[in-house]
Amino acid sequence: MRINPKVSEKIAKVLIWAAALFVLTVLFAIIIYILYKGLPMINWSFLTEIPRNMGRDGGIASAIVGTLLVTTVALVLAVPFGIGTAFYLAEYTREGIVRRIIRFSAESLAGIPSIVYGLFGFIFFVMYLNLGWSVLSGGLTLAVMILPTVIRTSEEAIRAVPDSYREVSFSLGGTKWQTIIKAVFPSAIQGISNGIILGIGRCVAETAAVMLTAGGALRMASSLFSPTRTMAVHFYILAREGISMNNAYGTAALLIILIFIINVVANALVNRFTAKNK
Amino acid sequence: MSEHVKIKIEDLNIFFEKKQVVHGLTLDVRANEILSIFGPAGSGITTLLRSLNRLNELIPTSRIEGSILLDDKSIYDSDVSLTELRRKVGMVFDVPTPLPMSIFDNIAYGPRLKGEKNRKVLGEIVEKALQEAALWDEVKNRLKASALSLSGGQQQRLCIARVLALDPDVILLDRPCSGLDPISTSKIEDSLTQLKDRFTIILAPHNTQQAGRVSNRVAFMLMGELIEEGFSDDVFYNPKDHRTNDYITGRFG
């Protein structure tokens, strides 16, 4: 049967709109429901006080700090190593068996369930290196976990930079390093930062791997070696143990807001950096 | 034009993997001349130009035999600094290739790589280069604007200015006017004729008319071989080789 092109055009349009509308509705429903339940819980004392009675009372200040600390440690390690590896893969190796092996490994690692990273972190960082349940163990584990994502997205971004930029830079007397820093990196930074933002999102949201490596302490972390609890873990425990659904929603709402803020700030930073090049 | 031989190419063969692109080419380029190397697409002209600043080496499968002397010194000697060679032998590509940064930063790119940091010195270099490329009057009030906002012809003059800012000896131009309108083309040709007093220019023209308009000497290449070279008038009005004649009169290519 042959459908009139005008009719098929209309049908396709309706179907595509319906798909997008359905997905957006589900997403917004979740976000709005959580904010509706959680926002009333958020006030000054919720943000600044340490949890009391296992989290039934008090705030979540120590979980906020824990989240930020663990995420920072993960980023400080994963970003430079990830970008460095990406540049190695994109600029210093030729398409060949080595690169294919590395890329295949990175892709496989990106697909492993986070609990496996958690187990690895627990055995290696917590037990073997004797770092204990700590900010450092949690951050190291998350760093390993997000590395593949950072590497893959950065490599894609670097390879998307037109070859003519490299040729121009070389033809003007640039060394390889100068070319990478001055001609390639500024053009790739947008894509690289997208990878980093993805990584931050995974760190902030991660539960299983952090619970096994950073612990679940309610008190404020005082050093890299203190055990801590992240917001995601706090939320999980509150909800799982039925301690306080209200505080759980409050934590979840704050998580959503935090991720939103990180996205906005990161985008603003990148835009400021690239604005003069547009 | 002087009699001094600036670049001496002898028995040059260039290969990409097993494919030979340039066959036993021998050619002298004299100081302060504009030499046009013309021929149909795929004649190996681009490859020849890119061998003079060793840009072919970016392609790992390329291989080169023979010798290229710049001021009587082989550019393949082990003590030759690659970055210095490329500053001495500047290149303008066939499509305008501004980097995604401001006009000023584009011109200052080369001098900065060399280590020049002084803002005032850079400003002088940029102004001089833009004037020589006949672009200064059009952009002097918006040096901070993105180079990508310029028109195609302006972008190509920017690329010429960017090369001039290196203070090179030799300038290679690989079909610099392909894709440009006639007015932009004539502006670029005008600046080329003014530049030859100070530079040695090797041009891959985008047609034989352009070769005739701007060059002192011309060379005709076909399938990677140098067929004929000589003064423009001799080659165009009195070609020695029938293939040159066929090409000029439009029988092929």
How would you spell out the order of helices and strands of chain B?
EEEHEEHEHHHHEHEHEEHH
CATH C-level category of chain A: Mainly Alpha
> How many domains, in number, for the residues of chain A?
1
- Main pleated-sheet profile of chain B: 6 strands, mixed
Q: Tell me the fraction of residues in β-strands of chain B, as a range.
A: 25-35%
Number of helices of chain B: 10
Largest sheet of chain A: 2 strands, antiparallel
Report the order of strands and helices of chain A: HHEEHHHHHHHHH
CATH topology of chain B: Rossmann fold
Count every beta strand of chain A, where a strand is a DSSP E run of 2 or more residues: 2
> Which structural class do you get from the secondary structure elements of chain B?
alpha/beta
If interface size is counted as residues with C-beta under 8 Å from the partner's C-beta, which chains form the largest one?
A-B, 21 and 29 residues
> Pairing-aware structural class of the strands and helices of chain A?
mainly alpha
CATH topology of chain A: MetI-like fold
Quaternary structure annotation: heterodimer
Computed CA radius of gyration of chain A, to the nearest angstrom: 23 Å
Calculate the mean pLDDT score of chain A and round it: 89
